Amino acid sequence: MPKDDKIINLAERTKSSTLWSPEDALRDALKDLEEGGRWEGRRKLIVLSLGDDEGSYSVGFVNAGFNASGLLAILEIAKRIVEKDMGY
Predict the structure, then answer these.
(1) CA dihedral (58, 61, 66, 72) positive or negative
(2) In this predicted model, what pLDDT tens digit does every residue of 26-77 receive, in sequence order?
(3) Is residue 65 classed as helix, strand or coil in its secondary structure?
(4) What separation in angstroms does the CA of 47 have from each of 1, 3, 24, 59?
(5) How far apart are the first and last CA of the chain?
(6) Cβ distance 71 to 59 under 8 Å?
(7) Dist. CA 76–CA 80, nearest whole Å
(8) What is the Cα–Cα distance from 75 to 21, expressed in whole angstroms?
(9) What confidence score (pLDDT) does residue 81 get?
């Protein structure tokens, strides 16, 4: 099927991660790891996932380069960064 140049990805246009699919996020992260970008030289990674089907939540994660205490510390730092970005 030919690509219509008038059709754009709304997530790319708005830069809103709320519109990304999990595949979009993983492709973007992999691109940055392979090409440098904002992740150049980084050797640690956490991928979080949330299942929110039928009112119950399940959280999964994959990490590279962290032990349990390091993982907990970086998640706390990430929480504080997001809170700051939100104005808290």
Answers:
(1) negative
(2) 888 888 888 887 777 888 888 888 888 777 888 888 999 989 999 999 999 9
(3) coil
(4) 33, 31, 13, 11
(5) 47
(6) no
(7) 6
(8) 22
(9) 95
DSSP string, 6-61: T---HHHHHT-GGG--HHHHHHHHHHHHHH-GGGTT---EEEEEEE-GGG--EEEE
Which has more confidence, 6 or 43?
43
Exposure string over 9-36, b if 16+ CB within 10 A, otherwise e? eebeeeeeeeebeeeeeeebeeeeeeee
3-state secondary structure of 82: helix
Give the integer Cα–Cα distance in Å for 65 and 84: 26
- For residue 69, the model assigns a pLDDT of 94
More confident residue, 7 or 60: 60
Tokens (6 digits) for 60? 């999964």
